[in-house]
Amino acid sequence: MNKKNNKQIFNPYLPSYEYIPDGEPHIFGDRLYIYGSHDRFGGSDYCENDYVCWSAPVDDLSDWHFEGEIYNRKQHPYREERMLLFAPDVVKGADGRFYLYYSMAHSSRMSVAVCNTPAGHYEYYGDVKTSDGRIYGIDKGDMLQFDPGVFADDDGNVYLYSGFCPNKTEDEHGRIMAGAHVCRLSDDMITMKDLPHVIFPRDFKCPEEAGFFEASSMRKFGRKYYFIYSARANGLHYCISDYPDRDFVYGGRLHASSDVGLRGYTPSDTAYPNGNTHGSIIQLNESFYIFDHRFTNACSYCRQGVAEKIEMDENGFFKAAEATSCGLNGGPLDGEGTYPSYIVCFLKNIKLEKDASKEERLSKNAYVTQDGGDRESGEDAYIANMQDGCMAGFKYFNMKKGHNKIAISVRGNAVGTIKITTDSDYSGKNIEDYPIAGQALLSIESHDWKETVVDIDIETGINPVYFIFEGRGKFDIKNFTII
């Protein structure tokens, strides 16, 4: 368990006011650093804030520290069509400095910033270029540069991965979108030793839904290389090879905050609101952890970092990790005490038809949000828009003997029944299929938080806890207390 004290670690692992998607975890010295994009709460586009960094001691992942802003979009020397800092990655160079690779929206050039420390203020360094000094990625025939992943191998070679693979094969400027590609960098960390070549083409042999889309990330465990990527809205997947730049074979699915690929869930029928995905794996001692993001605020532009322990088998293959509320906790949460509702990991309206329109799903699904605007302090996130058929799930708790009530803090205007179940969820399960461990009348008409207490009969041991509402009106959930 990666914590020095008894403090529990929730998912998302950063404070609820922080929106860091596309997280790339890296260990420098004795700390784990998270580099990612930076969404703005209430924003209207991806990545509207500047880069910030968080870190934690490798032996205590409950102790996250805000490092502050590390790079500002105003430092980028070009005026792009959309001044948005997309998903970055960082590597330590042979000179001991740290290099941050990033791309601005629509730029297709791979830019680099440099700093003497992992989380100091980075300064613009230049753009990745060919050996003859030409900036790569802006001319017709170049491979489109998007979502950098940078990797320093044990032999000193540094590899830069990139790529974007939508349905079309070229963009409007004639840049090639053939799949994931890689090049080696020179010692200056900015000059290509060789031009990029494709390692994951669009016709790569893998399950149909698992083709490369974006979000390149490379890791090495033992003697094997793991290329991690996003397969559209189908979660994070990986390929494996004995080499960093060729001969990859499909490995499997790693994670989706919507649990796509597990228990029958698909991109059109998910356990949690679904969308793009981006992340990677880190190894701490003998354990592995997958970092990803989830969606909040009923939109695509308020993404939060989540993480889970992930298991590797004896043959070097990973088993897909389930989305949970405990994430990095090292085990289930205590079956007593008060928990914030924003750690929900299952959230859907189970009365909606699978072919419901996007508008209907947005209006009838509950979602995580917060009061106030975008900020760097002040946690008040909660579940909003609970209504008839909505189900909110939290996994997992080590339930203890003698705890037979759950007090739920709610506000809104609703009348009906709130039910609690500990039965496992799966795709296609109807509301009547869930055995009920407790229920209570909910009748509320208040802008203030009020408690509703439900008597429960839950077996001791490790259990999920789900709230189901049937009735009229809408309400919010702030927290709940297992008594």
From TrEMBL:
<protein>
    <submittedName>
        <fullName>Family 43 glycosylhydrolase</fullName>
    </submittedName>
</protein>
<dbReference type="InterPro" id="IPR052176">
    <property type="entry name" value="Glycosyl_Hydrlase_43_Enz"/>
</dbReference>
<dbReference type="InterPro" id="IPR023296">
    <property type="entry name" value="Glyco_hydro_beta-prop_sf"/>
</dbReference>
<keyword id="KW-0378">Hydrolase</keyword>
<dbReference type="InterPro" id="IPR006710">
    <property type="entry name" value="Glyco_hydro_43"/>
</dbReference>
<keyword id="KW-0326">Glycosidase</keyword>
<comment type="similarity">
    <text>Belongs to the glycosyl hydrolase 43 family.</text>
</comment>
<dbReference type="Pfam" id="PF04616">
    <property type="entry name" value="Glyco_hydro_43"/>
</dbReference>
